[in-house]
Design a protein that fits this description.
The protein is mainly alpha-helical. It is built from 14 helices and 4 strands. The longest helix has 46 residues.
């Protein structure tokens, strides 16, 4: 009896330990830790390899954007190398045409800068008293907290802008050459790259999923970038028209800046608001005149972000704003403006890979979930059969012969 109790207890203890699944939880935690550490190492490596990786990734993004154009040329019998060279020349032409839009307005602004600076100083002079009161309040707070006065020291490094340009020019030229070469070879050999990666897949199911990843990445990134380019160009035209109507100088420049900065969500809009406010403060009359171009730009951006973009791109490709903001923050820190341009396409690529490889399930929003539950309840009520009330027995009069005293009488028979 005593021997059976320890055996029963040990068996029960093993059963309780197996029910807690401690080993499985520990194994999953270890795997998750390895994934997180690998992700952090990859992010730091991307930051350190900016000189080489940034132009290569930008070339891949632009190549995915112009992929449908290359496919159309190749279907008409154009060789891969010739179609890739034609697309590279087309891209250079677009860059040159965009630069022309900036050259003339910037030359005009070079002459207007002293006048605008004087107007800006005169306008800021009106804010002297409020700023002085804020400064006095700050000194009082310092006195209450007991902070000692410390002199602000500004150190200006020696070196002229010409020296800085001469120092950075070789590196910039090398990155441009790497970008153009990567763009050409990616467009010319993208089919060979796809076949090579598919040949590395050992199972048929893995090859099928990898092929779907290639298809979704090319479709989503090209559709997104082409649609966003059309939207941003339209946005720039609208901003230029509005700036011309209110009398802002060089409206073409502000339209071109709005189109370019709109490729970087959130950050580009914030930079555009600051520029319009500063220029409006120096060129328009009063604070109301400075806020007018900012208000018009924000109104047009609101219409574009809430009505135009969701209808053209589709709400299925509209991602979480927090993920977009996080991606833009990281890529701007890692690669600067180039990172801001490829932030959203990189999210689309990761989303395509995750949806085709990982077992993911779309979870509806709370509002949609409530609608679905209410609809299910209504359908269940309609599908429930209605039970008829029990029928009471009815008396049916039937004629049957009853002989009593030689006469026929009618008797009531209950059914």
């Amino acid at each position: 009896m005593n021997k059976r109790q320890p055996a029963a207890r040990s068996k029960r203890l093993q059963q309780e330990i197996s029910n807690t699944q401690f080993e499985r939880i520990l194994g999953n935690a270890a795997q998750l830790s390895l994934v997180l550490v690998g992700g952090m190492v990859a992010l730091v490596a991307l930051h350190l390899g900016q000189v080489i990786l940034a132009p290569v990734f930008l070339a891949i993004t632009v190549g995915l954007m112009f992929g449908p154009v290359a496919d159309a040329l190749e279907k008409r019998g154009v060789p891969d190398g010739v179609s890739a060279a034609a697309i590279v020349l087309l891209f250079l032409g677009l860059i040159a045409g965009s630069a022309i839009l900036f050259v003339a307005p910037l030359a005009d602004w070079a002459e207007r800068i002293p006048i605008i600076w004087e107007a800006l100083r005169a306008e800021l002079a009106n804010w002297k008293e409020p700023l002085a009161s804020i400064g006095a309040l700050q000194e009082q707070i310092k006195g209450v907290l007991g902070a000692e006065d410390a002199a602000l020291t500004v150190t200006v490094e020696e070196g002229s802008p010409v020296q800085n340009i001469a120092f950075f020019a070789p590196g910039l030229l090398a990155e441009v050459l790497v970008f153009l070469a990567s763009l050409y070879f990616f467009l010319a050999t993208r089919d060979q790259i796809r076949i090579f990666i598919l040949s590395l897949c050992v199972t048929r199911r893995l090859r099928w999923r990898t092929a779907h990843v290639f298809r979704d990445v090319e479709a989503k990134v090209s559709k997104f970038l082409l649609a966003v380019s059309v939207i941003n160009i339209s946005m720039g035209i609208g901003v230029a028209i509005l700036m011309a109507l209110i009398g802002m100088p060089t409206p073409i420049l502000w339209g071109a800046l709005a189109a370019v900065l709109n490729f970087i969500p959130f950050v580009g809009q914030a930079v555009m608001v600051v520029l319009l406010f500063a220029v409006g403060l120096g060129t328009q009359n009063g604070l109301e005149g400075a806020l007018l171009p900012v208000g018009l730009y924000l109104a047009l951006n609101f219409v574009e972000g809430n009505f135009v973009t969701p209808n053209l791109i589709g709400r299925a490709m509209t991602m979480n704003p927090f993920l977009i903001f996080f991606a833009i923050t990281y890529w701007l820190w890692a690669w600067g403006p180039v990172g801001g341009f490829i932030a959203v396409p990189s999210l689309l690529i990761l989303y395509s890979v995750a949806t085709n490889i990982l077992p993911m399930r779309t979870v509806p929003l709370r509002r949609e979930q409530r609608k679905l539950e209410a609809r299910a309840i209504e359908e269940a009520k309609e599908a429930t059969p209605k039970v008829a009330p029990p029928m009471k027995p009815q008396k049916v009069e039937m004629e049957r012969p009853v002989r009593r005293g030689g006469r026929k009488r009618t008797a009531a028979v209950a059914r």
